[in-house]
Amino acid sequence: MNLKRYEKNFNTISKAEQKLLADKKIAIIGCGGLGQYIASLLCRIGVGFLTIIDDDSFDETNLNRQLYCHTENIGKSKVQETKKQLNKINPLVTINAIPDKLTQQNGHKYIKEHDLAIDALDSAKDRIVLQDICEETNTVLISAAIGGWYGQLTIIKPGDKTLSKIYPDSEQKGIELELGNPAFTPALLASLQASEAVKYLLSKNTLSSSQILYIDLLNLDFEIVEF
User: Fold this and answer.
1) What pLDDT digit, counting tens, does each position of 164-193 carry?
2) What Rg, from alpha-carbon coordinates, does the chain have?
3) Which are the contacts of 14, defined by CB distance < 8 A and separation ≥ 6?
4) Is the pLDDT of residue 76 over 80?
5) Pick from 188, 187, 169: which is nearest to 123 by CA?
6) Bridge partners of 67?
7) Domain count across the chain
8) Whole domain around residue 145: which residue ranges?
9) DSSP 180-225
10) pLDDT above 90 for 102
11) What integer is the mean pLDDT of 194-199?
């Protein structure tokens, strides 16, 4: 391992923990505003294997917030374009780009054998599907949702069914459709998801699975709610 690359990680995490991260596998489901930031952060910190799953392609509305969207790759696959950039950032990390939509039918093969899954999706229905797949594969899920100035973050252990409690109607529309998504909200929530992911992999203190962090950036209010 090239430890010089990770020199600025040390004292925050140890060299032993850095080597541990290199052996870990994370699946990131969704490669939009949240997912691209999450992938970048985890690639830079040195998680050894990242799977990124999304069947979407870039369009002009992504330019305001999606890290790897630019005027020359409109119409191209989000996961393939993200993989290109991640390979340039850290060739020590294996990037498994899957240009497909996660479903109940294919989810088991995509999620199994990962140490952790991260929800970067934008619909309640797709999140519930992901939660069910994580339960079937015994995979912990770190979930976030964003809209406008607001965001939420939670960690879901198999059997918790937290998203079913948050979204009793799986057909409800995401808040981002009403409030939009400025660049800073996904960047912040993605950073928190990446931080919680690293802490989980290194057995450090994380949110408990009975807590949700609610964020109101307009009023600079951060609140952890027990449920």
Assistant:
1) 999 887 666 666 667 889 999 999 999 999
2) 17
3) none
4) yes
5) 169
6) none
7) 1
8) 3-226
9) ---THHHHHHHHHHHHHHHHHHTT-----TTEEEEEETTTTEEEEE
10) yes
11) 98
